[in-house]
Every structure is written in C-alpha cells, then in structure tokens.
Automatic annotation (TrEMBL):
Keywords: Acetylation, Coiled coil, Cytoplasm, Elongation factor, Nucleus, Protein biosynthesis. This is Eukaryotic translation elongation factor 1 epsilon-1. CDD domains: GST_C_AIMP3 (cd10305). It is found in: Cytoplasm; Nucleus. It comes from Salmo salar (Atlantic salmon). PANTHER family: EUKARYOTIC TRANSLATION ELONGATION FACTOR 1 EPSILON-1.
C-alpha cells in the first residue's frame, strides 16, 4: 500500500518525474533509491523528501511547534495505524475523533502531510464503516471527508460516502 501512497503523493505535489520504489523486509518498508546519494528508507522519510523536492515546506508545518505536531502524527501513522490489529482500530478512531473535536486538520487549521498520510492509512477502515459508526466518530468523519475532497489527495482511492444530513427525532424541530 505504501508504494501507491507515495505515487499518489508525488502526483498531489505536482512532481513530474515519478520515482522508482522498492520494498524491504516482511513489513514491506518502502525504499527510494537516490541517483546521487544513499537510499531513503521508510514512508515518512520518503514522503518528507518528496515534500521538500516539490518545494512545499508548508506541508511540514510553519512554526517549530507546528512542525513537531506534524511529525507526531506522521509517527503515529507509522507506529500505531500501520499494521494495527482489527481490535485496535476502534481505539485509533476514538483517539482521532477526540483529538479532532476542535480542529480542522491534524496540525490545527492548516492542511499538512500528516493529513494526507493519515487519510491514506485509515481509508481502508473508513470505507467499511456503517453509517452509524461514521456518526459515532463524527469529528473524525468530518475531517476524513474534508481531506478526501482536498485537491489531489484521493488519486488511487475510491471516494467514501459520508452522510451529511443527520437524522433527528421529532423532538428536535
């Protein structure tokens, strides 16, 4: 999956020349072989390199604090989301939902690389959620829907239908 994500990220960043990737190990860690340097290993390392190559530093955060929050969420993606067991996904969704209660994006009010990679990382889970589950994680679902409509993000993934109109009982006129 990481290789498709990196390819989609390249397109979203407007990089013209696609890179050649391979994977290593049982966990299929992505590797980017550089022409004039050592190979880059790991999703976050390669994605950060692509953002720098595209001259889009704002995607890595503006201030030192903002950069740290972006890095925190990139690390969360790789350590918690990737390869998580099915029983752990509810905790991840609950954590995201709680965190996003008063935020538009993972790093506050600015779209970053963390949003893109987290979106790619949880898409396969969200696509299978029932409407009731999406409503249970309303903040996370709002964020997810917002990110999937961000220009250029969704390349290799199908759109996820998110119910926009909440159904109210007759007591809420």
């Amino acid at each position: 999956m990481s290789l498709k994500e990196l390819s989609s990220l390249e397109k979203a960043l407007g990089l013209k020349k696609p890179n050649k990737y391979s994977t290593q190990g049982d966990r299929k860690v992505p590797v980017l072989q550089s022409i004039n340097g050592p190979a880059l290993v790991g999703l976050v390392t390669i994605a950060t390199h692509l953002v720098q190559e595209a001259k889009r530093p704002e995607l890595l955060g503006g201030s030192a604090e903002h950069k740290a929050v972006v890095q925190q969420w990139l690390e969360y993606r790789v350590t918690k989301v990737d390869g998580c067991h099915k029983e752990d996904i509810k905790t991840i969704l609950k954590d995201l939902n709680s965190y996003l209660e008063d935020k538009v994006y993972l790093a506050g009010n600015q779209f970053t690389l963390a949003d893109t990679l987290m979106y790619y990382g949880i898409h396969h889970v969200i696509v299978d959620l029932a409407v009731q589950e999406k409503e249970k994680y309303m903040n996370m679902t709002r964020w997810f829907d917002h990110v999937q409509h961000y220009p250029g993000v969704r390349h290799h993934l199908p759109p996820v239908v998110v119910l926009r109109n909440r159904v109210y009982t007759s007591g809420h006129h």
